[in-house]
């Protein structure tokens, strides 16, 4: 397949929804070793329900691709299990030029703590990694795996862009707080999707206090929806965000949490201190009408804010949202406003 492609530098290969035979995937994985000059690889094997043992061979082939800088691997809904993915990531230690690693093993891959523990041990050796995007949503990850992973992640000094998606697992307070306390120190772009993980008020407070240490962030996306977080947790989170003086892009998903009007009002009061903020995306429940009015009023004081998106979920038929719009005229610098109403 690739034996004659010795000068190939970029490869994108998508084989989705095919119930692929393992033999085909094995052949693909083994022949990739012929591409010695490969520096960019993008592979998708979604919804094939194949055994994941071909990943071991794929990793071994990449050991021969000494020039590889970018690996994008998406294998959703394949029931892979821990071992084959751990073997693949272990091989990546040989790829010393690797700078951009994006792994999507979301949805029913039967990934548990063991893989994250192994990855935590291996990732310390990815010496030149600057971008890491890891999606393990909808698996069976618990607290211990995230804690072990965070210890290794802390040693990745060169990572400046980090995206972690642990949505709909069970990492709880200890997992979330340990993760935020051990993030790489030189981050400029951070995305954390922690929705549906049984994070409580106390966990949110410790998490928020840890995030206050990342003052160099320019982009911050935090999804803490569908947890057990109250207004006090949001207030401390808001104070931490207010210390990110370089922040330009902010996304907060607060849906499905017990946030009160007072909590969202405090968020707006703190965001006034983010004077460089240009883009703000907010997802909230439908019971915060008054708070949204106050929030928009506070946002109008941010001189650099040009793009505002507010997504309101729930039954909004009896809500008096039109009053929000009268505050929009104060946001005279906005060039884009999006307000979405979504029915549950």
From TrEMBL:
PANTHER family reported in the protein's UniProt record: RAN GTPASE-ACTIVATING PROTEIN 1
InterPro entries given in the database record: LRR_dom_sf, RanGap
Keywords: GTPase activation, Kinase, Leucine-rich repeat, Repeat, Transferase
Protein name: Kinase domain protein
Species this protein is from: Tetrahymena thermophila (strain SB210)
Lineage, top ranks: Eukaryota, Sar, Alveolata, Ciliophora, Intramacronucleata
Keyword Kinase: yes
Example GO biological process: nucleocytoplasmic transport
Molecular function via GO: GTPase activator activity; kinase activity; small GTPase binding
Claim: Zinc-finger is one of the keywords in the record: no
Gene Ontology CC annotations of this record: cytosol; nucleus; perinuclear region of cytoplasm
């Amino acid at each position: 397949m690739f034996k004659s492609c010795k000068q190939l530098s970029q490869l994108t290969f998508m084989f989705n929804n095919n119930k692929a035979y393992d033999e085909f995937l094995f052949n693909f994985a083994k022949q990739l070793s012929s591409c010695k000059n490969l520096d960019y690889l993008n592979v998708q094997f979604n919804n094939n329900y194949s055994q994941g043992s071909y990943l071991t061979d794929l990793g071994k082939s990449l050991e021969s691709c000494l020039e590889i800088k970018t690996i994008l691997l998406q294998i959703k809904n394949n029931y892979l299990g821990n071992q084959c993915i751990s073997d693949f990531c272990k091989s990546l230690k040989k790829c010393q030029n690797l700078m951009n690693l994006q792994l999507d093993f979301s949805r029913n891959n039967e990934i548990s703590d063991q893989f994250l523990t192994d990855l935590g041990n291996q990732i310390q050796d990815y010496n030149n990694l600057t971008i890491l995007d890891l999606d393990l949503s909808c698996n069976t990850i618990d607290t211990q795996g995230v804690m072990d992973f965070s210890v290794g992640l802390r040693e990745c000094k060169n990572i400046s862009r980090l995206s972690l998606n642990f949505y709909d697992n069970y990492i709880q307070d200890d997992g979330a707080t340990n993760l935020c306390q051990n993030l790489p120190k030189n981050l400029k772009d951070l995305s954390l999707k922690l929705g549906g993980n049984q994070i409580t008020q106390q966990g949110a407070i410790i998490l928020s206090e840890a995030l206050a240490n990342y003052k160099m962030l320019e982009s911050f996306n935090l999804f803490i929806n569908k947890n057990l977080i109250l207004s006090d947790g949001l207030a401390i989170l808001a104070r931490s965000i207010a210390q990110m003086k370089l922040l330009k892009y902010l996304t907060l998903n607060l849906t499905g949490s017990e946030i009160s009007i007072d909590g969202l009002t405090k968020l707006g009061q703190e965001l006034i201190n983010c004077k460089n903020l240009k883009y703000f995306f907010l997802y909230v429940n439908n019971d915060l009408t008054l708070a949204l009015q106050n929030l928009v009023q506070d946002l109008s004081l941010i001189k650099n804010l040009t793009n505002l998106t507010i997504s309101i979920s729930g039954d909004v038929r009896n809500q008096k949202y039109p009053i929000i719009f009268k505050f929009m005229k104060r946001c005279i610098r906005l060039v884009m406003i999006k307000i979405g109403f979504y029915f549950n």
